[in-house]
């Protein structure tokens, strides 16, 4: 379908006047010059580009149509009026100004271009969310802290303009800090002070993204970066490369740092280690940070991917082939979109892993293999197959983790080069650093971010240098295997505690018969209106009765109540509805759960509630009461710690005792009394058996499980009492409402 002459006339006229045409946005093209945009139009006319309907509009500049800048309009010379009306469009008033264009209305509602197919795109291009980044200083054209540089680099890589980006200086003003400095050219940056931040953002660590209504905030590097990628894909679903950054099953950096080693390394360890390295004394700079060595070690570990067995068998076949120039296996084949990538592959790709990785970057659909492997390859045991080597950070494929690490490692290498440090003992990091540069779009993003990549001849020193030996290196992530493996039941441990006068004790429930009248509550408040079965909904109502009763007794008008690990918002929404004079904050790391909670809140029209998608560590606000229903494992201890920091009361129902283990911030046992009696191994025994309270277990097993639950929570209660708290461990009523029916209630004295 050729491009209509009236459209070409209208757009080329704009191009000659130096106006940026909207077809750049519609087609997802880079901001080329006038010639590049005109070329895109003619390519579409020959049937070589996207559908012609996707760019039948342009954005009139502010100088031409005051009051209508940024709105979708069509050229003044349009198709005949009858043809427009036949497609369902109504005439529209002329825009202000001589020669102005008129705004059309789509049959599906909203403003649109001439064919009504641009509604989704134009909606996505409107700035509805704000991104706030910390700004402490600028060094070598790099914005610090590194979290901010990473976020800006991702925006440049994705060519994302869906956010209004603010830098938040550490001081009162950024004028002195920015004098003579060159900020990144893309995206456009604004400045604001901390006192001008939205209230929900003031309660979070940056980076943070807040929605248009100011009620929904996303905080923390991993959460913010994943949201940028998702919004980029939503605005342009043809941009599959953006979605691929989230990795297989879209889980890259999804787990919190307490659970995922990769999230902890990318989000916390590497950025902080590099920042410390850059500001350390000359003596300390002579040693490579342990976190960087940990990354080098991880890049040397075998790769595991979802089609691991298939690729490893192909690698074995490649190794057994005498001719090293044999063609690629079908899995790693695929025509490239640009000759540049083909040339780069011919020059540098020498392994199957590299070929598979770059095939992923250059082709979306890979034809299925038609030839079976030789019998010798098929019969080889999995344990005898060769391992796969890292091409990128998490394995064979380029993901968000690479984009997080790249600005950090670049600053580390740049500083090391200036110090004339020899870096041959980091061969895997250097190889990764070079490969990432060849990924399409990375160099362009680096140019926008004022990042000049280093080359290996400038980095490598004498080849006689010995490679780093990691045989004795420990990254601290591996627990003592002796403590992990234990034999026997909980009775010896419980007996040991009893001999010291320590037994599980439960305080009486202060309001055992208190209940909400669920039949009179709105449907969006009642958990039974969701997708739960009737039995599960009844148990959830009983659980909520217990928590709401406790919080109601503790709260007073004007209090701030935080629902940690809120999930779908069952607790927080009930509290916001029942206590309209209190402000309720829901904190949850899972986006889908929190979005469902916000939808329910919007249905109820609640004005005293806000939502934060973040890990607990990124919330720094003050509050009066902390509540959590079934906070998993160490999350219970994190909630208690947050409450103690601000001297707030807490009502917590713990869960998943078996997942309790030592972390970088928490060690067990928690209390002084338990530490004097139990080792970490013995405490783990209690935690493992505290999980054995399921309904289908024998009664005697459930009794022991309940006692172990009581002992673990007693340890937590005594630890909190050391901070001048009065703490009780209470059983929910009825106890059948949940196998995990303990409540830990703490009140500051």
Automatic annotation (TrEMBL):
Q: Which parts of the sequence are annotated with region: Disordered?
A: 66-86
The GO annotation for biological process reads: respiratory system development; response to lipopolysaccharide
Where in or outside the cell? Cytoplasm
Keywords (A to Z) from UniProt: Cytoplasm
| Pfam families xref list | Methyltransf_32 (PF13679)
What GO CC annotations are associated with the protein? cytoplasm
Key word Electron transport present in the record? Answer: no
Q: Which residues form a coiled coil?
A: none
Predominantly, its location class is cytoplasm
Report which superkingdom the organism of origin falls in. Eukaryota
Q: Where is the Methyltransferase domain?
A: 539-661
User: Which InterPro entries would you find in this protein's record?
Assistant: Glutathione-S-Trfase_C_sf, Methyltranfer_dom, SAM-dependent_MTases_sf
Family per record: Belongs to the GSTCD family.
Identify this protein by name: Glutathione S-transferase C-terminal domain-containing protein
Please name the source species.
Answer: Crocodylus porosus (Saltwater crocodile)
């Amino acid at each position: 379908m050729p491009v209509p002459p009236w459209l070409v006339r209208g757009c080329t006229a704009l191009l000659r006047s130096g106006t940026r045409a909207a077809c750049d946005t519609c087609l997802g093209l880079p901001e080329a010059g006038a010639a590049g945009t005109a070329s895109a139009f003619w390519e579409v006319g020959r049937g070589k580009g996207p559908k012609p309907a996707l760019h039948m509009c342009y954005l009139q500049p502010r100088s031409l149509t005051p009051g209508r800048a940024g709105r979708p309009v069509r050229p003044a010379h349009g198709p005949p009026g009858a043809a427009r009306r036949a497609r369902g469009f109504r005439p529209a008033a002329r825009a202000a100004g001589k020669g102005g264009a008129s705004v059309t209305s789509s049959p599906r509602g909203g403003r649109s271009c001439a064919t009504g197919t641009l509604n989704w795109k134009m909606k996505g291009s409107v700035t509805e969310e704000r991104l706030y980044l910390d700004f402490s200083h600028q060094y070598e054209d790099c914005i610090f802290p590194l979290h901010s540089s990473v976020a800006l680099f991702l925006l440049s890589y994705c060519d994302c303009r869906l956010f209004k980006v603010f830098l938040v200086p550490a001081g009162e003003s950024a004028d002195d800090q920015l004098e003579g400095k060159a900020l990144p050219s893309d995206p456009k940056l604004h400045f604001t002070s901390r006192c001008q931040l939205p209230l929900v953002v003031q309660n979070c660590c940056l980076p943070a993204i807040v929605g248009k209504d100011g009620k929904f905030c996303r905080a923390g590097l991993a959460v913010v970066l994943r949201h940028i990628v998702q919004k980029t894909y939503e605005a342009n679903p043809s941009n599959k490369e953006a979605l691929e950054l989230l990795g297989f099953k879209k889980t890259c950096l999804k787990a919190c740092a307490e659970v995922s080693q990769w999230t902890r390394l990318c989000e916390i360890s590497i950025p902080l280690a590099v920042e410390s390295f850059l500001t350390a004394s000359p003596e300390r700079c002579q040693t490579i940070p342990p976190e960087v060595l940990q990354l080098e070690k991880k890049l040397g570990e075998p790769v595991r991917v979802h089609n691991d067995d298939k690729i490893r068998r192909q690698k074995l076949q490649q190794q057994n082939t005498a001719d090293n120039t044999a063609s690629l296996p079908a899995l790693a084949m695929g025509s490239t979109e640009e000759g540049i990538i083909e040339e780069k592959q011919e020059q540098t790709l020498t392994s199957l892993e590299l070929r598979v990785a770059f095939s992923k970057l250059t082709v979306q659909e890979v034809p299925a293999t038609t030839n079976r492997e030789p019998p010798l390859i098929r019969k080889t045991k999995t344990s005898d197959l060769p391992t796969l080597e890292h091409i990128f950070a998490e394995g064979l494929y380029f993901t968000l983790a690479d984009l997080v690490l790249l600005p950090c490692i670049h600053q580390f290498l740049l500083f090391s080069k200036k110090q004339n440090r020899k870096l041959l003992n980091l061969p895997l990091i250097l190889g990764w650093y070079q490969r990432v540069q060849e990924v399409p779009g990375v160099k362009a993003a680096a140019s926008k971010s004022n990042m000049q990549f280093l080359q290996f001849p400038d980095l490598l020193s004498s080849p006689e240098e010995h490679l780093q030996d990691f045989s004795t290196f420990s990254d601290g992530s591996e627990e003592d295997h002796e403590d992990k493996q234990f034999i026997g039941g909980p009775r010896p441990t419980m007996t040991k505690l009893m001999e010291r006068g320590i037994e599980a004790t439960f305080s009486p429930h202060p309001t055992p018969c208190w209940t909400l009248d669920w039949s009179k509550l709105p449907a969006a408040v009642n958990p039974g209106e969701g997708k739960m079965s009737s039995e599960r909904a009844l148990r959830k109502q009983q659980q909520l009765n217990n928590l709401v009763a406790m919080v109601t007794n503790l709260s007073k008008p004007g209090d701030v109540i935080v629902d940690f690990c809120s999930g779908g918002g069952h607790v927080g929404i009930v509290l916001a509805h029942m206590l309209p004079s209190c402000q309720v904050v829901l904190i949850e790391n899972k986006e889908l759960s929190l979005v469902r909670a916000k939808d329910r809140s919007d249905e109820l029209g609640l004005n005293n509630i806000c939502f934060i998608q973040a890990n607990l560590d990124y919330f720094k606000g003050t509050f009066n009461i902390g509540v959590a229903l079934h906070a998993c494992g160490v999350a219970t201890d994190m909630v208690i710690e947050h409450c103690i920091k601000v001297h707030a009361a807490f009502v917590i129902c713990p869960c998943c005792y078996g997942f309790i283990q030592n972390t970088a911030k928490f060690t067990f046992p928690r209390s002084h009394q338990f530490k004097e009696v139990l080792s970490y191994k013995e405490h783990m025994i209690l935690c493992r058996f505290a999980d054995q309270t399921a309904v289908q277990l024998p009664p005697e097993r459930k009794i022991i499980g309940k006692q172990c639950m009581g002992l673990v929570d007693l340890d937590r209660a005594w630890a909190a009492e050391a901070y001048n708290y009065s703490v009780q461990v209470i059983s929910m009523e009825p106890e059948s409402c949940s196998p995990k029916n303990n409540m830990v209630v703490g009140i500051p004295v």
